[in-house]
């Protein structure tokens, strides 16, 4: 049966070949087709169309798949490039900001050399206390660098606090925002008004924040005005006087924001807006004043 089946298939194929050959010979030199020839041609064309469309779809699928893989690899490389670009941009911005701060610090130290004989130790802030009731920062200078408790700490803008505790390699700085006249752990600041040093003196011993504006203010009390004609006025610049033996004289503190009535209506209560910011501090200067003989 198998042999007979193969013979039938052979004769069928042979017959189709002969038929197609005869059709080609018959068509030679003719422009018209007979209906059997038309039927055969349409049948073959239809079969070719059925075969061509799936084959084209399959080929297109694999082509699209290859293109998708290429696009995926390109997107992956683009993402890497964008990440590197963002990192480089951030690094550049950080370097530019640091360069700007250091230029300001350099100009500040050059200016201080001309105004006093203090030594300024520049330090980086390495930590900030998370305690809302203990406003301190930690700097990367300590005993080995000659840092001692109660040394004044400033930024190029102005006074920000004092050294509180010292270890061999680090120091904690108590900020002025921690000032409290009921806390013995804080140190009051003896101040005066620049240009009126011989007539106006006071003490800053507390800090408050305006709830509406969010501005920081240092409260100046015990104001003595030897010369009423040179009384403290709004806008005056407040500096350290050096009378308290903690903060050396001449350090910038802030400007007079308002003048109100003090205790018992005897002396005024002055609000001083500090020059320095107490947030996002990155570099500071520890002030080493010469020892008084």
Automatic annotation (TrEMBL):
- Domain called Rod shape-determining protein MreC beta-barrel core: residue spans: 125-288
Q: Pfam families from the entry?
A: MreC
Query: Gene3D superfamilies per the record?
Result: Rod shape-determining protein MreC, domain 1, Rod shape-determining protein MreC, domain 2
Keyword annotations for this protein, in alphabetical order, are: Cell shape, Coiled coil
Q: Which InterPro entries does this UniProt record tie to the protein?
A: Cell/Rod_1, Cell/Rod_MreC_2, MreC, MreC_beta-barrel_core
Q: Which residues form a coiled coil?
A: 85-112
What function does the entry list?
Involved in formation and maintenance of cell shape.
Family note: Belongs to the MreC family.
Protein name per Swiss-Prot or TrEMBL? Cell shape-determining protein MreC
Q: Name the source organism.
A: Gordoniibacillus kamchatkensis
